[in-house]
From TrEMBL:
One annotated Gene Ontology cellular component of this protein: plasma membrane
Organism: Streptomyces haneummycinicus
Pfam family, one: ABC_tran
Full protein name: ABC transporter domain-containing protein
Secretion signal, residue range per the UniProt entry: none
Membrane-spanning parts: none
UniProt keyword list: ATP-binding, Nucleotide-binding, Transport
Coiled coil: none
GO MF, one annotated term: transmembrane transporter activity
Residue ranges constituting the ABC transporter domain according to the UniProt record: 7-235
Record-linked CDD domains: ABC_MJ0796_LolCDE_FtsE
Length: 237
């Protein structure tokens, strides 16, 4: 049973300046995610999912409350320290991949290692291992623009895992994929969880949450409305 907290939110609120009337984007959110958990943040559009994810990734700061990730008080970091924190602690996967088409697949995947100062040879060996594990090693020298959506998302996952982050964040990672590729990415997230990776998946898709996470945090109007156990967790018992 995993015990170490990877994410701890305590009384976190965020209100955007441009939206001074109405409820805050996130209100008094408290939450603990432990090492090895795969958690979905589920809610309709506008419920505060991206706000929550940005606060966990140190891309934004709360107006109240604290955010701690792998022992780092993220909510107190300045911009440069937050960037270092992300490099060391967070792997991120997005709906639209955010790959650099001018670079080869390998160079996309090794980029986070380069930024972290890893030796080039070490980074290339790790990239080759990741591409092989994800079944896309034959595309190592291709440019991402030549690949299918599903293949591109695998490259994005390899890049996210490059620096062995304690936390993988995925924001609607199947949102731009056809259903077969979406199922592949869903299976991949499930495998990463089985290997012990802590995963937080942001989605509005309940079936996806059920397919690859063990716990769902339901957001509604900026509040945590429920925290439930998924069938994947039941099946593992
Ligand atoms: P979700 O990701 O669940 O769709 P968001 O976290 O993006 O929700 O948004 C939560 C609420 O905050 C929404 O009402 C949205 O319109 C508002 N919001 C999000 N980002 C901003 C911003 N930069 N400025 C003003 N309001 C914002
Ligand atoms: Mg969003």
């Amino acid at each position: 049973m995993p015990t170490t907290p990877v994410i701890e939110l305590r009384g976190v609120s965020r209100r955007y300046d441009s939206a001074s009337d109405g409820p805050p984007a996130l209100q008094d959110a408290s939450l603990t995610v432990r090492a090895g958990e795969a958690v979905a943040i589920l809610g309709p559009s506008g419920s505060g999912k991206s706000t929550l994810l940005n606060l966990i990734a140190g891309l934004d700061r709360p107006d109240a409350g604290t955010v701690t990730v792998d022992g780092v008080r993220v909510s107190g970091l300045g911009e440069a320290a937050a960037a270092r924190f992300r490099r060391a602690k967070i792997g991120m996967v997005f709906q639209f991949f955010h790959l650099l088409d001018d670079l080869t697949v390998t160079d996309n995947v090794t980029l986070p290692a380069q930024l972290a100062g890893m030796a080039r040879g070490t980074a290339h060996r790790r990239a080759a291992e990741l591409l092989e594990a994800l079944g896309i090693d034959r595309h190592a020298r291709a440019h991402p623009g030549r690949l299918s959506g599903g293949e591109r998302q695998r490259v994005a996952v390899a890049r996210a895992l490059m620096n062995r982050p304690p936390l993988l964040l995925a924001d609607e990672p199947t949102g731009a994929l056809d259903s077969a590729s979406g199922n592949d990415v869903s299976a991949l997230l499930r495998e990463l969880h089985a290997d012990g990776q802590t995963v937080v998946l942001v989605t509005h898709d309940e079936a996806l949450a059920q397919a690859c996470t063990t716990r769902t945090i339901h957001l509604a109007d900026g509040r945590i409305a429920a925290d439930t156990t998924n069938s994947l967790a039941e099946a593992a018992r």
